Amino acid sequence: MMSLDVIVIGSGIGGLTAGALLARYGKKVLICESHTIAGGAAHSFSRRGFHFDSGPSFYCGLGNKFPSLNPLKQVLDVLGESLEVIPYDPLGHYHFPEGTFPVYSNLQKYRQEVAQVTPQGAQELERFEQRLLSLYDCLKDIPTIALRADWQLIPILISRCFPALLKLLPQINIINSSVGDVMDREVSDPWVRRLIDLECFLLSGLKAHGTIAPEVAFMLGERTRVGVEYPVGGSGAIVDALIRGFQRWGGELWVGTHVEQILVKSGKVIGVKLRKGEIIKAPIVISNATIWDTYGKLLKPEDLPRTYREEALKTPAIESFMHLHLGIKADGLEELTGHHVVVHDSKQDIAKPGNTCMISIPSVWDCNLAPEGYHVVHAYTLEAYEGWQKDEKYEDKKREKAQFLYCALEKVIPDIRQRITLELIGTPLTHSHFLRRFQGTYGAAIAAGKGMFPGCHTPISGLYRVGDSTMPGIGVPAVAASGILCANTLK
Ligand SMILES: Cc1cc2nc3c(=O)[nH]c(=O)nc-3n(C[C@H](O)[C@H](O)[C@H](O)COP(=O)(O)OP(=O)(O)OC[C@H]3O[C@@H](n4cnc5c(N)ncnc54)[C@H](O)[C@@H]3O)c2cc1C
């Protein structure tokens, strides 16, 4: 075994970006991944010729056509990797009980659609979007790839981003506020307010008042200015590109390698102990496991200050998911589009488990994801972890809960049940098992104004964290940014 500078626990996008950048900066890096497939929430898996995304399928700014703000693309550029992507618009269809509504990246087309439902609301939406796009225009001059999470950020910002910082000054209020605050100022139309809540929920798992304004500004700016696109080969192609870049710069990835414990001596990290019993030493360990898994399972309680540990473990978690992964016959579905969101009941909270269902059919863009004449379908909805156990009722409960997803799919493909050739139903237990995540959570429910995502530092010298329970939060671009911040801090 070579002598290591860094061990990364987990090959989610956060772990891969941190590990790959550090390898690029000349460090000897080993990534230990518990699962036999790398990528965490973004891994792809195959069954009988169908290639499924396990999680994310909505991406902006990964191709080479336009300069992109996406931190993941910036990492790929540094690694010398690129992705083939397929652009598409409309980016999705929202199915409300009162009707179906296409969502376009092109803002004018989007507003025209909104105006057909509510002309007043469309004008309010325009004002809301302008507020957020002006924030995006300031943020875009600050390159994420240059940022770090320590005091050395200050000289970087002053020397490289001074004009951008000046431009940001008038935006200081909105940077710290929730999108809900911006919405309250600009939008009174209830239909458009629900639309904004829905878009925030899809992005952060929280509605407008829980989602920070820069996150939505970034999403809106990227999808409007750069466009929405799907990577050829699915989310696994992103993971593969990061691994290629990582290995090209000398990094080593071990899959099927579960880390049992982070080893700490006299307040300093000294390495990790694998489930197989082996001890691997390194002066730096980066955990890509969640905050609950890192502090609750991988460290001994006495390794952390008691109150720090207790506070960290109290971080609220967003619920887990029910999943349906289907292989279906494609005949007669030539007009099918790839992304759909179904809200079953407008009177119920959109965040209520089962009420909002997300559907992705990526084989409409990349036909190689399914055998000829078939499509791959992934549908998912929030579902609480509590109450799920592998007992005699498990199979029935699983089928029953999957009905929300089937009913949603019937809005898009009415005869879906007759088309199925492969069916995989996933519960919160499946999600937590394959993703090695505490209670299968989507991530930390840190609402705007109620707290901030913690940075990459920990109280233990040499131990760092990346991923969706660190700054800036949930989502592939965000966790790539967390990897950049950590790697640059350790450069
Ligand atoms: C259903 C779903 C749909 C989504 N859709 C989108 C989308 O369209 N667009 C978007 O941008 N984002 C989306 N997201 C969010 C995004 O996928 C995640 O925020 C992001 O991928 C999380 O990355 P991460 O690096 O934080 O951690 P993870 O992906 O959780 O990776 C952590 C890794 O660490 C490994 N690990 C944990 N413990 C150990 C251990 N002890 N030893 C070794 N390895 C360990 C795990 O196996 C895992 O591989 C979606 C998420 C889900 C679940």
From TrEMBL:
Residues 13-489 form the Amine oxidase domain. InterPro entries: Amino_oxidase (IPR002937), CrtISO-like (IPR045892), FAD/NAD-bd_sf (IPR036188). Transmembrane segments: none annotated. GO terms for molecular function: oxidoreductase activity. It holds the Pfam family Amino_oxidase. GO terms for biological process: carotenoid metabolic process. It comes from the Bacteria. Gene3D superfamilies: FAD/NAD(P)-binding domain. This is All-trans-retinol 13,14-reductase.
